[in-house]
Amino acid sequence: MMGFGAHDWVARHADHQPDAMALGCAEDGRRLRWRELDHRVGRLASVLAGLGVAKGDRVALIAENDPRVFEVQFAAMRLGALFVPLNWRLSTHEMAEICLDAEPAVLVHDATWAAAATEIAEKAGVARRLAWGLPADEAEDYEEGLAAADYRDPRGTTTLDLEDPTHILYTSGTTGKPKGALSTFRTLIWQSLNNAHTTGYSQPGCHQLNVMPLFHAGGLHVMANPILYFGGAVTTMTRFVPDLVLAALTSSAPPVTHFAAIPLMYQAIAAQPAFASADLSRARHFIVAGAIATPELLQLWADKGTPLQPQYGGTEMGPMATALDHEFGTLDKAKAGSTGRKAFHTDIRLVSPTGEDVPDGETGEIWLRGPSVTVGYWRRSRDDYFTGDWFRTGDAARRDADGFYYLAGRTKEMYKSGGENVYPAEVENVLSVHPSVADVSVIGVPDPRWQEVGLAVVVPVPGATPTLDELCAFAEARLARFKLPKRLVLVDELPRNVTGKVSRAALKEQYGR
Domain named AMP-binding enzyme C-terminal: which ranges (predicted)? Predict the structure, then answer.
């Protein structure tokens, strides 16, 4: 593969649209134009090089959402180093374990996470730290370093290759040690192209309000990096605060055109008193992912003139693998639980446990291949996760005759009832629509007759006490009888892990016996 240097996104947009907005900060109103961002990235690259960072080295970061997170990412990419954002929802011990695996040359952090960064650096043996918002004697000062550094110009150099890795994004360690999924220049570019077809990132004037944590692919790669690749703008917000988000969606300049969140966030925004009169007419694409949105939530936002766009994917998958385009009839598909058709440049197979492709209407494991799919995991064998060119996701889905996909959960969560495969997420998607159900999770539990049966763990809406018979009568029109739960527990809340997902392990520990 021929080397390249001129394909540096920041330098390209600095040359072609120097005065256009690139990055913003919702909290303090900072704005960076592409020319300014390029100057800061070029100087930061020199600072990192002075701290010993070279091509192939790792640059770890722990910080709140801030435009400087993107500066660190782009400076590392300009050097050919790998950007490793740390999930601050993990314990310092877990983050130190990640750094022991990635072996970063430097740890970059903000004042908020200074204590954690100090502990992580000590445990993982990271000798150099670079920070903003701290006294100079506690770490190398980020802003002072930029002010004194020379600009590193990528134009005309040929030191990098499209196959060179750019990111290590560690997946949640709820089922074992976290694994570092690798991105490359190539996978980032093809993910941007995939999204250009479904979410309009190549159109002029794109501006994302980003409230998703920038240590996740959902924060970095679903919207932000593709929008920046095409020369749009991204405004960061430190944390999700529903009324502040709604105000930013309606009053930001330039106007917010793109937004991504999980269903709970969209529910919280819609619950704000100002939502009824909010003007969202400038919105183009609002992605909903991370869970299946209820039909009521989808209809609520559609009635507002801003239909939500369901997507499916994951850190290793691009991350977008399927998306629901805004076209005639797709709202009904979304309300039925579909996450859309496959991404343009991604191939999908649905595979049975015996390795055969399943027909439309039947459930199989999702296998993916394509130029946006991860090339593998940091320091792990591809053979553990790939069959040839196909990445085995561990997720299950079915496909209808029109090519729309419907998630059925994780293959490891599947249980057998009377010899039939049952995927809990498929059952949950149906039960969650019941008017007495606020939240629900389904697990398989032992049964002397059927081997296993479904236990529905339900958080009822205030004042409601749904019965098992009532829930099954509601669900039997959409589910086969063997998929209907045979047991029911009502609880005040469901246990969740550090990423906010329901902890099935905790449910199995409590109820699985």
Answer: 426-501
